[in-house]
Design a protein that fits this description.
Layout lengths: L3 H9 L6 E8 L8 E6 L12 H5 L6 H10 L6 E6 L8 H10 L3 E6 L4 H9 L5 E5 L7 H5 L4 H13 L4 E7 L6 H14 L5 E5 L28 E4 L2
Parallel strand pairs: 2-3, 3-4, 4-5, 5-6, 6-7, 7-8
Antiparallel strand pairs: 1-2
Helix pairs in contact: 5-7
Length: about 240
């Protein structure tokens, strides 16, 4: 280890293992950057279609020492680090961890469900992150049904904080057409437009896999993309 902050962080949380696993290389998850992904264990939502049930259910495996050693070994080869999960903002030492990663010369992208606006605001204020992807999963009235999480005002708070910040960010929704209708997607688009969001809105098509957090069947409903609202620029992923 090479910096005082790294040593302090490891000393304070030496026994902590918040990270489940590492994807060592990605060209897709951080726009315009070669990156790795740190997968944080645990989540405070339970979306049935979640692709990462093992990460959500299981405990973290990797110590901070192991993760930082890996990042040091990739200096000069990788440009960015994606913090994903699970929900990484549940980790209480995330700000210190981000500042340690930044001290190694990396840019940081944060993937979040927006449920911890206090943690997000700290990261934004301290300029500890460089890009944010926030998942807006459903119209507010249906959030609890889809995610088993009811505190939607906290997610709205996170969106408002991002809109006020200078940190680049995107909002995205995973679209399973049997769970969300075109009208649901247009409700999300209208809400973002009213809030002042002007960036690209990303629609990620649900791709059926064998193992999800709940029993998620293949889509039966067809998506009519022509009915999508034109209030925001939209980019389709995996359609």
């Amino acid at each position: 280890m090479s910096t005082k902050r790294e040593l302090s962080l490891l000393r304070n949380v030496a026994a902590n293992t918040p990270i489940h696993s590492i994807t060592k290389f990605t060209t897709l998850d951080y726009p315009h950057h070669l990156a790795c992904i740190l997968w944080f264990a645990k989540c405070n939502m339970a979306c049935s279609y979640c692709y990462n049930p093992h990460i959500v259910k299981e405990e973290g495996i990797l110590s901070l020492q192991e993760v930082l050693d890996f990042l040091q070994s990739r200096q000069g080869r990788l440009e960015g680090v994606v913090l994903s999960g699970g929900e990484c903002t549940l980790y209480p030492h995330l700000l210190d961890f981000c500042e340690t990663i930044k001290s190694l010369g990396y840019k940081i992208k944060l993937d979040t469900n927006g449920s911890n606006p206090e943690a997000l605001e700290k990261l934004l204020t301290c300029k500890a992150i460089d890009y944010v992807a926030l998942d807006y999963k459903s119209p507010w009235k249906g959030y609890k049904t889809l995610t088993h999480y009811a505190h939607t005002k906290r997610i709205e708070h996170s969106i408002e904080s991002l809109l006020k910040s200078e940190t680049p960010f995107e909002v995205r929704t995973t679209w399973h057409s049997d769970l969300l209708s075109v009208e649901d997607i247009n409700t999300i688009i209208k809400d973002l437009h009213v809030k002042g969001y002007q960036n690209t809105y990303y629609l990620q098509h649900y791709l059926h896999v064998n193992e999800t957090l709940g029993e998620t069947k293949k889509e039966q409903s067809k998506v009519d993309l022509s009915k999508l609202s034109k209030l925001l620029p939209i980019e389709l992923r995996n359609f």
